[in-house]
């Protein structure tokens, strides 16, 4: 099935550094979502974006819905060790046969060194 | 946020046996539930969408006779892996949505680790 192009695939950073990751798609989505998954667990929703151009924050996390509706980015400021995990973007459409279904990016593995 | 549980959290079975995985929405009615499969170091891939009281819709390439889905109530969906083989070993994750189209927020379960020997 289709996957979103998520970059980077992995990041190794020092505690306190900022992190940025993005997702791009060849097609339009109506909703962009960012999830974090810890090992052996299900994904947990971090931020949901519903309008093109929308910029939303959740604590140290900030995400934006691209103007073209084909991309989104997630920033994490002042990283801490518990930010370690896999971050996934997901796009959702509101029409056609894909109605409601989520398409996930490949994930970004984040490692934070104390 | 809403809570979704899965049972069992991990299961080991012999090749050729069938395994049932339950997905429950604990504090809301889930009109739509989704089943995903995730192989190690890979992303989540949607297997099927189920609506309460109707047949599940399977994604291309997913065998409906092998992965039986039953969404018998508004709080429970089950995935049965029939005649499991080692290549079916994976992390199976469900999500639940209160919306009939699943466009409302999807809440994910903690996943079930299936190992087929």
Can you tell me about this structure?
- The complex is a heterodimer of chains A (114) and B (117).
- Chain A has 114 residues and is mostly beta strands.
- Chain A has strands spanning 5-7, 10-14, 19-24, 31-37, 44-49, 55-58, 61-65, 71-76, 85-92, 102-104, 108-113.
- With 117 residues, chain B is mainly beta.
- Chain B is built from no helices and 11 strands.
- Chain B starts with a strand and ends with a strand.
- The mean pLDDT of chain B is 92.
- Chains A and B meet through strand 5 and strand 10 of A and strand 5, strand 9 and strand 10 of B.
Concise account of the structure shown:
The complex is a heterodimer of chains A (114) and B (117). With 114 residues, chain A is mostly beta strands. In chain A, 0% of the residues lie in helices and 52% in strands.
Question: What number is the mean pLDDT of chain A?
Answer: 92
Structural class of chain B: mainly beta
What percent of residues of chain A adopt helix (DSSP H or I)?
A: under 10%
Calculate Rg of chain A over CA atoms: 14 Å
Instruction: Give start-end ranges of low-pLDDT stretches of chain B.
Output: none
């Amino acid at each position: 099935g289709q996957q979103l192009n998520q970059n980077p695939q992995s990041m190794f950073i020092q505690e306190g550094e900022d992190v940025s990751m993005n997702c791009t798609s060849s097609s339009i989505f109506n909703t962009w979502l960012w999830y974090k998954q810890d090992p052996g667990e299900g994904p947990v929703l971090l931020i949901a974006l519903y309008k093109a151009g929308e910029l939303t924050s959740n604590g140290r996390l900030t995400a934006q819905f691209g103007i073209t509706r084909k991309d989104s980015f997630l920033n994490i400021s002042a990283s801490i060790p518990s930010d370690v995990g896999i971050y996934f973007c997901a796009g959702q459409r509101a029409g056609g046969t894909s109605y409601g279904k989520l398409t996930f990016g490949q994930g970004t593995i984040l490692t934070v060194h104390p | 946020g809403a809570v979704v549980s899965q049972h069992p959290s991990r299961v080991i079975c012999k090749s050729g046996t069938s395994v049932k995985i339950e997905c429950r929405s604990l504090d809301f009615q889930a009109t739509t539930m989704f089943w995903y499969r995730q192989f190690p170091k890979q992303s989540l891939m949607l297997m099927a969408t189920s609506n309460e009281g109707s047949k599940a819709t399977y994604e291309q390439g997913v065998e409906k006779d092998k992965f039986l889905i039953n969404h018998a109530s508004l709080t429970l969906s089950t995935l049965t892996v029939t005649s499991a083989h080692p290549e079916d070993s994976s992390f199976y994750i469900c999500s639940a949505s209160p919306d009939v189209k699943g466009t409302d927020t999807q809440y994910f379960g903690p996943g079930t680790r299936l190992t087929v020997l």
